[in-house]
Amino acid sequence: MYSEQVMQHFKNPHNMGEIENPDGVGEIGNLRCGDVMKITIKVKDNKIEDIKFKTFGCIAAIATTSMLTELAKGKTLEEAEKLTNKDIAEELKGLPPIKMHCSVLAANALKKAIENYKKKLTSG
Amino acid sequence: MAYLDSGATTIVDPEVIKAMLPYFTEKYGNASSSHIKGQEAKMALNEARHIIARSIGAKDEEIIFTSGGTEANNFTLKGIAFANKARGNHIITTKIEHDCVLNSCRWLETQGFEVTYLDVDEQGFVRTEDLEKAIRPETILFSVIHGNNEIGTIQDLATLGAICKKHKIYFHTDACQSYTKTELNVNKQNLDLVTLNSHKIHGPRGVGALYIRKDVKITPLLHGGGQEFGLRSGTDNVAGAIGFAKAVKLANKDHVEYMTKLRDKLIEGILKIPDTRLNGPKGDKRLSNNINVAFKYVEGESIGGYLDAEGINTSTGSACSSPKLEPSHVLLAIGLKPEEAHGSLRLTISRFTTEQEINKVLETLPKVIEKLRKMSPLVKFIKRL
Fold this sequence. Notes:
The structure holds two protein chains of two kinds. Chain A is of the alpha+beta class. Chain A has one domain (about 5-115): Sufe protein. Chain: A. Chain A is built from five helices and three strands. A three-stranded antiparallel beta sheet of chain A has the order 1-2-3. In chain A, strand 2 (about 35-45) and strand 3 form a beta hairpin. In chain A, helix 1 (about 5-10) packs across helix 2, helix 2 (about 60-70) packs across helix 5 and helix 4 (about 85-90) packs across helix 5 (about 100-125). The longest helix of chain A has 24 residues, at about 100-125. Helices cover about 40% and strands about 15% of the residues of chain B. Chain B has helices spanning about 15-20, 20-25, 35-55, 70-85, 100-110, 130-135, 155-165, 240-250, 255-270, 300-310, 330-335, 340, 355-375, 380-385; strands spanning about 1-5, 65, 90-95, 115-120, 140-145, 170-175, 195, 210, 275-280, 290-295, 310-315, 345-350. Chain B is an alpha/beta fold. Chain B has two domains: about 15-250, Aspartate Aminotransferase, domain 2; about 250-375, Aspartate Aminotransferase, domain 1, CATH 3.90.1150. In chain B, strand 5, helix 7 and strand 6 (about 170-175) form a beta-alpha-beta unit.
């Protein structure tokens, strides 16, 4: 059902955890659907210097957030904002159609984290 | 390796395979043929029928071989509905049935029938007063799963059967998971129809049976050459029936005791993990081979995924295992919150399960849960809500 890439990221997730005193936080998902994702980022010189994820969810949910952190790390905020769920799914060599929503959630979690960072900048 | 998914299907007993083999290679006659080879097959088929009939207190001619449990349940619901239209159009079932019952009922609702889906209590038992209240003059059938496939609850068939008898409605049970594991007797339990199958008890896949009490009015399922007393035509699956009957003959009380011992060891060990709860009842009202546990803050498919990577096969009643994203309807019906239902895991054993397999699960599972909980944002998330 899952590609080898999905299973690899599931078994050995990259950047798992939570950044202390993060510059931006993005939380998304709901308990009914069984997916909750939390992305924390550290920003330096307009670039994502560090990123970590925590996920409650299925194999695809864990693999997509892991892949997202890999893709976003080191990118400028503008580049990172442009990351789509398709980018994540493609890097994972595809997702079952019913699991595509996991990649949507992962992409949106990052957007929320960046938004949260920008909001803090303007208000702080 | 550890196979903990015997509720999905079981290993076929080598004795069963041995019993079946001659019916592929030597005694391969069509049981409907009048020559000696055909009659040899017919006799074997009827002997198999007799063994299954006797195991539930039925008469031979009340056992109809089918392709399995799904067919027998479809046959019951549709066959009873269409044959008894003149009497009424109302069927009662429960919210914790197998999908083949629920989806047959939903289809019947599109054909002018009305269906009541009874609630169950927090351990999965039907409340007798709910059944009494649901029965109307136009009710024709009550169908309930005997041993629940997800949470192992064994219904009190005798009490429910007595209510059906009093109100003169047909009583059907789906005994796919419970057959040979707990008492099943069509007379003591007032049963009119019973679904049985072979591959949950170390018999072959592709064969099951439906018990139909002699005076029950039912529409034939398959029209054709008139096999199975005109109710289910098609060339008889003799080898399958032989294997099924052999599996029934091999099953005994020692197996149930053995499975119960392993089950309770597994339950006790798993519940030592913090923030876990057993879904379904404890003790002898639970199937001897079923364990279902909810782990807080983590999701079932991920638990299964990590266990699978360690060579442990389990299953989940969670959304992710099925094409729908809703959590298990059974777990929701016993009152679990969606996130608790998502975090549940089913482990089902058989008489072939070894102590070593149980130990492997008890060694591996706590580590898997710990890993996933470290990954889960829910610990804080839930506390904040």
